[in-house]
Design a protein that fits this description.
The structure is a homodimer. Chain A has about 210 residues and is mainly α. In chain A, about 75% of the residues lie in helices and about 0% in strands. The structure holds a DNA duplex (30 and 30 nucleotides).
Chain lengths: ~210, ~210
DNA sequence: CGATATACGCTACGACTCGTAGCGAAAGAG
DNA sequence: CTCTTTCGCTACGAGTCGTAGCGTATATCG
């Protein structure tokens, strides 16, 4: 379904233009931010006319959402064999994602817009937040099968544990990368993981 | 120093206008977001002329920074007699403040703009982030006098501890309230405090 | 009291951006 | 060849930022 049955008659769209425009949007977003980004500038960077942008996306907001969504389709998670390694991998992944200036500006601009647009907020949560939560769930499950963490006594506690761990990891990394503005060095990741490991078993046990 | 010795001659500024303008800014920011907020609209809401805004703040950015900073000055650190109670109280305060839509939109819009504007980023850190560290400092001092935490072995370690604690608390609460969009229930606050208390003494001890 | 100095509201302005409309030309389908 | 769609280009109306000028209101100083 949703077969992209493009128009069968007429001049076809430039297939390369979409990627070039979205890349130019992310580039401009990194340099100028949401407010400083202009459609004319994006068009010039992509080497197309401004009217071409509006022919493919109805507004500046929609264009930026599409540009960020395309960027966030790369997220994955690996089982590294130990709880510490998995946590450090998750933290490093967050940090790497947030170290790109274009992602910083794009994500925060999206979050800001989402605070007053419930539809956009829902889309951000489903496309960005929940997938990251699955990383925590997978890591916990792997640690439990390895015997590093006790099995969940009940489903409710497990869900709460996932939420609190995710909020702490994501929140702290985001705060450090975006607010403090300091990079997540290997030393910092290791120290934060140590800090996180101490109470983890307690919470997991319930 | 920095005695705000205002001009001694000439018509004095309307003392009520500052508060009205900042309140109008937060209100407009909640309804329209950063991009939708206009200086003319803020002036109309506050019942002043647009030129009055520019007479008191040099730009839209600075006005929003001041509006958000004023909002966050409401936070206070209460001495409730135990470290756990103090932490839970300040987390609850912070969460309650961030549950207001106007604060959500304001903070996120500000952070988003700050990712591209180093000067604005610096202003945000100085006017909003750094002043809130006083809560951590006060809470730690109270806990130390009560004997719940050891005294600082050296100033450098104490400063690092304050930074880490603040980053974790602020980052986690902000993330949960603004990004995940879930309320900070009493259960969540209690669980997060437990998570925070375990490594706290280690860090404080150095 | 008058002179001085500042804040105020109002209007207008230049520069810039959004998003749209119209034009001729290009590129494919039937 | 004809029809349809996309393309780049130019121009436009509406709206915003931040500034300047003007007359007026309200304070301090001599």
């Amino acid at each position: 379904m949703t077969a992209p049955s493009g128009p069968r008659k007429g001049r076809p769209r430039n297939a390369d233009a979409d990627g070039a425009i979205l890349a130019a949007t992310r580039e401009a977003l990194a340099e100028l931010g949401w407010g400083g980004l202009t459609m004319g500038d994006v068009a010039a960077r992509a080497g197309v006319a401004k009217t071409t942008l509006y022919r493919r996306w109805p507004s500046k907001n929609e264009l930026v959402v599409a540009a960020v969504a395309e960027q966030l389709d790369e997220l994955e998670m690996a089982d590294l064999g130990s709880l510490r390694a998995d946590i450090e991998a998750v933290v490093a992944q967050f940090a790497a994602l947030l170290s790109a200036p274009e992602t910083q500006a794009a994500l925060l601009a999206l979050f800001a817009e989402a605070t007053r647009d419930p539809l956009l907020r829902k889309r951000v949560r489903e496309s960005i937040i929940e997938p990251q939560k699955r990383l925590v769930i997978a890591g916990r499950a792997a640690a439990q099968t390895r015997g590093e963490l006790p099995m969940d006594s009940c489903e409710e506690m497990a869900s709460a544990a996932v939420d609190i761990i995710f909020d702490t990891v994501a929140g702290t990394v985001v705060h450090r990368m975006l607010v403090s503005g300091e990079p997540a060095t290997a030393e910092w990741i290791s120290a934060f993981t140590t800090l996180l490991l101490a109470p983890l078993t307690e919470i997991a046990a319930g």
